[in-house]
Structures are given as C-alpha cells and as structure tokens.
Amino acid sequence: MPKKPRKGDADNAAAEQPPVESEFKLDQKLGSAVVEESSFATLFPKYREVYLKEAWPLVTKALERRGIACTLDLIEGSMTVKTTRKTCDPAAILDARDLIKLLARSVPAPQAIKILDEGVACDVIKIRNLVGNKDRFVKRRQRILGPNGSTLKALELLTNTYILVHGNTVSAMGPYRGLREVRRVVEDCMANIHPIYHIKELMIKRELAKDPELANESWDRFLPNFRKKTLSKRRVPLKVSDKSKKTYTPFPPAPEKSKIDKQMESGEYFLSKEAKDRAAQKERKEKQKERKLERAKEREADFVPPEEGGRPKKKRKKTEA
Fold first, then answer.
1. Residues with Cβ < 8 Å from 154, sequence gap 6 or more?
2. What is the CATH number of domain 119-214?
3. What is residue 244's DSSP assignment?
4. Rg of the chain over CA atoms, in angstroms?
5. What does CATH list as the number for 25-118?
6. Cβ–Cβ < 8 Å for 35, 90
7. Residue 76 near residue 52, CB atoms below 8 Å
8. Out of 15-24, 37-46, 86-95, 168-177, which region has the weakest mean confidence (pLDDT)?
9. Per-residue confidence at 301, pLDDT binned at 50, 70, 90?
10. Among positive and negative, which fits the CA dihedral 124, 139, 201, 232?
11. Cβ(181)–Cβ(159) under 8 Å?
C-alpha cells in the first residue's frame, strides 16, 4: 500500500526548493535561449546624431548586460539591436527595441535605459493625426505641458511615469497602469478635453486607494462628473400648424409640381436656348422699364407746385349786445 503523505512533508518539500529568481543573469550559464537571430532597426533624425554618438557607449554597456548587441550607423541614420549567443532572456530583444525607439524620439539616454528594468514599459502616442488644424494642434499640445510645465509634472507624479512631449508624438515610460492613464489624458486633450479634469479625477482615485474599506466598492459616486455647460444644439424651425377644420377627403393631396412641370405647362420647356435667352432678356428689359418709370415719378414729385389760394377765413361769431 502506498504511504500516506504526512502533514509536514509538503512544508519540507517547499523549504528544500530553491527560490525562483525574477531576472535572467548572464553568470547562470543557462546557454542561449534563442535559436535564430532576431534584430530590430529604427531611424533617427539628423539633429540626434551628435547626442547619440556621445551617449552610445552608455547604451552599449547597458545592452551588453542583457546579452544584446547594438550598432549605430551614422551614414544611414539608423540604430540596430540584435540577439547574440549570450542572450538568456528572450524578452530582452523587445526591451532593446523599445530602447532605440525612445532614443529616436529624443528621450535622454539615462532615462531611456530604464526601459530595461523589470516592470517598466513605454508607449509612443502619435497625436498629429488626431487634430486636423495645425494652429489648433499646437494649442492643444501646449495644454499637455501647461504653464511652466506644471500640468506635465502633475501627470508624471500621479501616474508614476516619465512623459516627453516632442514634435508630433508623446513618449511615456512607466508601469502599465500609468501608461494607460497617460494615453487616455493625451487623447482626450487632443479631443478638446482639458487635462485638469483628469488630474482632479486621478487625485481623488489616489486618496480613495488608501482606504481599504473601499477596495471592493464602486468609486463612481466619489468621482466628479464634468459636463459641457454650452451644448451646441441644432436650431429647430418653428412649426406653424393650421388648426382650422378641413373637410375630410379620402384621397391624398396632389403632389407639388416640379420646375420642369411648370416649364412644360408654360411652353418654356420646348423652347430652344436662344429663345429662352431672348425671353429672359425681354423680361429683364420690361422690369428695367417699370423701375425707370417709378424713379421718374419719384423725381417729378418734388417739382409739383402746391395748390394756389390762401388759408380759408374763419367766421367770427356774432355777439349780442
């Protein structure tokens, strides 16, 4: 008969197992975790060439710890990362891809290298195609920064992320929850919703998260509900209904005559283009003639002499003596 497991066997087995490490290390000598070579490349603008050339040794040193090789091509203006035989972590190449993407978007190298840490992700939000007008786009992009960068700093503190507004994109680094909030704020700002409303909402959520009693409850009653004060309503024309009693007829009303029907009744439809032009010119001349006569009468009215004769004499009443 098989032996029944004793109560302390499970605890002893758990104690004997070594602790699981969260990160891959090169000194573990696990061998290469990749079979084929994977590589990613991205282009960078001309003005980043000098800075990248100076900061490239720092980038190379950081990627070597993860077993990733990198190349900077100043002639083509591109950065390339690829796996090597020393690559132990299969996800390292994806972090390296995000690293060169952030460097191309003008993120400083010391900050961009933090993408290689555990639990740090990035999101590059394209905002140019969200607004059609260039002037309106510049104004709304400035709202993300705020006066002296105060709005951007508040967003970074509330979401625990790093945000860089540059050109037609917004680059963000941090935890996944914070990146989701940053994308929502940026896209709503481009849709003409001011970031201050989201900042107030995030501040309230931060305070509510400290209360353990509200962990399993809905926070909708605590969050502010902002609505537009001026609603753009379409003007509805005033309908004047004829309330007078009409005799009932079972037949529907006759359809209104179209322009072609009216022309066919008058015979104008069958006239040629020259005949129509002559008729229109004749009608125009008649109207001009009538207008001319009216103006002549108005001018002659000033020269009509007044009626002759003085004022009628008033009759005096006779008074009896």
1. 146, 199
2. 3.30.1370.10
3. S
4. 42
5. 3.30.1370.10
6. no
7. no
8. 15-24
9. confident
10. negative
11. yes
Which residue type sits at 174? G
Do strands 68-73 and 78-83 pair parallel, antiparallel, or not at all (unpaired)? antiparallel
Strand partners, 22: none
Q: Vertex 284, ends 281 and 289: CA angle to 5°?
A: 125
Report pLDDT digits (tens) over 240-293.
Answer: 676 677 778 888 888 888 988 888 888 888 888 888 888 889 999 999 999 999
Residue 68: CB partners within 8 Å, gap ≥ 6? Answer: 81, 82, 83, 84, 87, 92, 93, 96
Q: Greater confidence, 78 or 36?
A: 78
Count of residues for the chain?
A: 321
Q: Phi-psi category of 29—alpha, beta or left, where left has phi over 0 and alpha has psi -120 to 50?
A: left
- Looking at residue 9, its pLDDT comes to 47
Q: Is the fold of 25-118 the same as that of 119-214?
A: yes
Q: What is the pLDDT of residue 91?
A: 86
- Residue 24 has what pLDDT? 54
Residue 156 identity: E
Tell me the domain boundaries of the chain: 25-118, 119-214
The continuous run of DSSP H or E covering 70 comes out as: strand 68-73
Which of 75, 70, 84, 74 lies closest to 41 in space, CA to CA? 70
Task: Please state the φ and ψ torsions of residue 59, each to the nearest 5 degrees.
Answer: -65, -40
SS3 call for 125: strand
pLDDT for 136: 92
What's the confidence (pLDDT) of residue 7? Answer: 47
